[in-house]
Write a structure and sequence with these properties.
Oligomer: single chain
Shape: globular
Distance between the termini: 7 Å
Strand order of the largest sheet: 1-2-3-4-5-6-7-8
Structural class: alpha/beta
Helix content: 25-40%
Radius of gyration: 18 Å
Length: 281
Amino acid sequence: MPLTKSMQLVDTHVHLNFDSFAPDIEEVAQNWRSAGVVRLVHSCVEPAEFDDIRALADRFPEISFAVGLHPLDVEKWTAESAQQILTLAQSDDRVVAIGEMGLDFFKADNQALQEEVFYGQLLIAHQLNLPVIIHCRDAAARMAELLRSFWAEQGPVHGVMHCWSGTPEETKWFLDLGFYISFSGIVTFKSAVQVQASAQMVPDERILIETDCPFLSPVPKRGERRNQPAYVRHVAEQVAQLRQVPLESLAAQTTRNACQLFNLALPEQLPHSILEGCAIA
């Protein structure tokens, strides 16, 4: 069945440069195109990944990407890191965000360093007027506090709370700061009651979907160790069900939102070579 505009999807967070995709990346790409995924935003764990990510975007033109340093890798931050991220972000017009960056207090004993590195990357995003891709685990209150402080000291910064797993109360903190909220396969898990409640309350114009592949395979693919972009369709189905809207409407809304946040070409503006491979099941 040919792909219709209403069923075009954007996976706003992938890690396709990981080794698990190397053997069959062409097949993975065909899978996402067959599922109607017309744009992908490739996140960055550390700047050393940049060349590999860019090579993937050369190979698959529907990929845009980010550059940044993940909070679990902040020990790699040096005096030159900020300039490196800034230079890389300016080196390619397919860079659409700074990240992923943020705070992860789940097992961390370096909270002060995480906060310093996070703030430094916020400054880069603010300077370049690029959105931020924020990772936030067990740190929502401190994250909101730091973002409010940044707004007061430097001015507004915009972006997305990716792979969101917060409560509705926490969700409101970031909505009030103007952030988008992106839901991953977690929203399909039976135990994720708070995440599902958050997915119901996010305004239409602020909701996004993602896979965070190769992690967090959604129901009904939980038995597969490797998630992949095609499975964002299952995230969309669950979010649509929770919000009691047609899947086509949810797909169209999240696609518009992704294009708005990351300044992506709208699907109808993409090269025909991308769109001709897309179809819905």
